């Protein structure tokens, strides 16, 4: 059996896209909308619908139908606002990713500096014999690994 593209498909009417996220339309540039315009039904992305309604509004203005032109321009404005909301959401997500990356790099640098400081302190002290040093080194490596795992889980 062929799988349906949209799991939340509703048969019959409904008008518009399915609203799965608490009644809000997903902010995805590739999301396809079904628009029930003033006198026709159009399907496409927000960008495509904006351009189509804008063109229909210009055409209606050219034929002298100011009422129809205004209806098309209002629909175009709706999709223009949706495009702005999508762009703002994408920009916020990009800033959040950049901030997470900066925090990760900073924590990584701090861990590296901490290891270097511990390494310098070990060089200054006399080294114990190899037989005594191995368990301590294993313990130290295990502690460092545990710290790294904690840091990564916090990020």
**Main sheet: which strands, in order across?**
1-2
Mean pLDDT: 78
Return the string of H and E elements: EEHHH
Estimated structural class = mainly alpha
* Rg: 30 Å
Shape: rod-shaped
Biased composition (Acidic residues): 145-155
Domain DUF4167: 19-88
Region (Disordered): 1-38, 88-155
Biased composition (Basic and acidic residues): 96-120, 131-144
Keyword list:
DUF4167, mainly alpha, 5% strand, 2 strands, 3 helices, single chain, 155 residues, DUF4167 domain-containing protein, two-stranded antiparallel ribbon
Describe the overall structure.
This protein is 66% helix and 5% strand. It has a two-stranded antiparallel sheet. Helix 1 packs antiparallel against helix 2 and helix 2 packs antiparallel against helix 3 (130-154). The chain has a domain at 15-118. It is mainly alpha-helical. Strand 1 and strand 2 (41-44) form a beta hairpin. Mean pLDDT is 78; it is low at 9-19. Residues 19-88 form the DUF4167 domain.
Brief overview, please?
This protein is 66% helix and 5% strand. The chain is mainly α and 155 residues long.
Helices and strands in order, then pairings?
Elements (H helix, E strand, L loop, with lengths): L32 E4 L4 E4 L1 H18 L2 H59 L5 H25 L1
Antiparallel strand pairs: 1-2
Helix pairs in contact: 1-2, 2-3
